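Encode chain A's predicted structure.
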Amino acid sequence: MEIEAPSTDITELPHDDKRRPYMCTVCDKRFKWKSGLIYHKRHQHTEGMLYSCTQCGKCFISLLYLKRHMARHSSKYKCTECGKCFPDNHSLTTHMQIHSDKKPFRCRVCGKRFRTRGEVVVHSRVHSGEKPYKCHECDKVFSRSGNLQDHVRVHTGDKPYKCSVCNKSFSESGSLRMHKNCVHSNRRPYLCRYCGKQFKCSNVLKSHVRTHTGAKPHSCRHCSERFTQSGQLKTHLLRSHNEGTWFTCHICEKKFSRSNHLKTHLLRHKGVKSGD
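Encoded structure for chain A:
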């Protein structure tokens, strides 16, 4: 007999795989029966995940899943570029493509090339407008499952990814990896092809490369302005089109477009007070 579940527990999404018509909106895994999807979501994506990995901070609902995950950290299939481990050589080989300059997969619509087939699938939603991942709290929709997972923590305040070195917690696994690479590591695996300068983080390298190319990939949806950095676009949207949220100082009511700028500003107030 098929298990029934509340509508908020499961979202059915149409796709081309008729053999497995039920897809998890969190991790994209697909199932033949609805009951299989319900069981998966209850055991994989329920709140209150108790077991935390001491290496990367990732959390799991059972000790068994944690042990399986921990085995990856001691795996012989380890990426020499970023240190990430994988259960087998095929997974490692697929992962290594993200560190390669080769982009064998091409978008049929715009011709843009990508390192993996999965990147093409996600990119194609730019053209189709498809946003299959829906937040059950506020109905906001996303084109990527990872974006939905990160967004949900806005409602829960959850920060499940803890740094094993300094115990700082993060709401996103990518933020934890970046923190470890930029703060606790001296490795600089990302090399600028133009000047040879090395960087700890890939996103810092991408930002640096634009100083050579002059590329401005971030465009305003309201006007013809384009920007090198996403933060510049965010500031422009706030100042020119009143779109977004200002970060306001509770002491002097000065407004900032970025939260880190507000934090720096608040430190100055503390300095003034300590000086008095």
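The first helix runs from residue 34 to 44.
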